Amino acid sequence: MKTKPIECYKLARIDGWDFYTGKTINYRGEGIYPHTVRVPHPDKSKGLCSNGVGHASVDSNDCFIGASIPCSAYKLRITPVCRDDKKYGWLDAEVLEEITDLNTLLGWNYTEAANPINSFKLPKRTPTGDDIALLRDWVEIRNSIAVGASVWASVWDSVWDSVWDSAWASVWNSIWNLVWDSVGASVWNSVGASVGDSVWAYIGSLFPGVEKWEYIDHPESVYPFQCGVDLWKRGLVPSYADGVWRLHSGEKVEVVWEGVLCGVVR
Questions:
Q1: Are 38 and 138 members of one domain?
Q2: Does 116 lie in the same domain as 192?
Q3: The pTM is what?
Q4: What is the pLDDT of residue 181?
Q5: In this predicted model, what pLDDT tens digit does every residue of 32-60 receive, in sequence order?
Q6: In angstroms, how far is CA 174 from the centroid of its own chain?
Q7: 148 contact partners, CB below 8 Å, separation of at least 6
């Protein structure tokens, strides 16, 4: 067991309190650093994931085990009393600083993950020629690959073990719930599948550290689903039915364009 002090990271709720109970340890304290925090009833024999041992991780993304978005982040110095492959256990910790730039710390777009863009909450837009060009590119991509499968597999290869159960799931749920609130059941059948692909593309864009996206050839350092993201951020969401493509926009999910894209099939 490694007993030399190490520096590692801890995620807490937005107000600085622990995720475990929300009232046991305040990592922010009075906002003066460094300061010391202690487990109220220390007992290293209980091991990790117990009420007798705190835990922190050297890899900041491993901190999402037991945490979720939104969160605050702290650098700690601890003397480990136990460990597993992702976490070190401690009885008291020196909180060295609060880290406010979570995008850099985590290596992905935490800011947008915590406040995802809901395309249907943006102002209603009248599509331009550039928008239709993006739609054409998006349709060609959707015809050639299952967007969700590519994003899923690619993120799995890059950050799955650390992020999926917390960060990734929180991003998906928060966006999807917002979209559902906007779309509603009345038009879900006509736009749901396409909305899903658009959401997958948007979520994938939050992970710029993924270098190779599965099942699709693309230039190095180029996100292959960016056209779908651009439409999403412009307030335009595609759908397809009966040979016709449509673009929906605004809180009422209105059809703002529809047509047949010559040379592009379903």
A1: no
A2: yes
A3: 0.87
A4: 74
A5: 999 999 999 999 999 998 889 999 999 99
A6: 9
A7: 196, 197, 200
Distance CA 260, CA 216 (A): 25
Question: Coil, helix or strand for 120?
Answer: helix
The single-letter DSSP state of residue 62 is G
Cis peptide before 34 (omega within 30 of 0): yes
Residues 119, 100, single domain; the answer is: no
The per-residue pLDDT for range 126-165, each reduced to its tens digit, is 999 999 999 999 999 998 999 989 998 888 776 656 666 6
113 band by pLDDT with thresholds 50, 70 and 90: confident
pLDDT of residue 118: 87
Last residue of a domain, one of 91, 106, 121: 106
DSSP output for 153-215: HHHHHHHHHHHIIIIIHHHHHHHHHHHHHHH-GGGHHHHHHHHHHHHHHHHHTT-TT----TT
Of residues 101 and 199, more confidently modeled = 101
Q: In this structure, are residues 72 and 28 in contact, taking their beta carbons and an 8 Å threshold?
A: yes
Tell me if 247 sits within 8 A of 139, measured CB to CB: no
Q: List the structure tokens of 266.
A: 């379903």
User: Could you tell me the CA-to-CA distances from 127 to 97, 124, 238, 248 in Å, in that order?
Assistant: 47, 10, 11, 10
Give the relative orientation of helices 188-204 and 147-163 as an angle to the nearest 10 degrees. 50
pLDDT for residue 166 = 66
- The reply to whether omega before 42 is within 30° of 0 (cis) is no
Any alpha helices (H) in 209-251, and if so which ranges?
A: 226-233
Q: Could you tell me if residue 153 is inside a domain?
A: yes
What residue numbers bound the domain in which 136 lies? 110-259
Question: What is the number of domains present in the chain?
Answer: 2
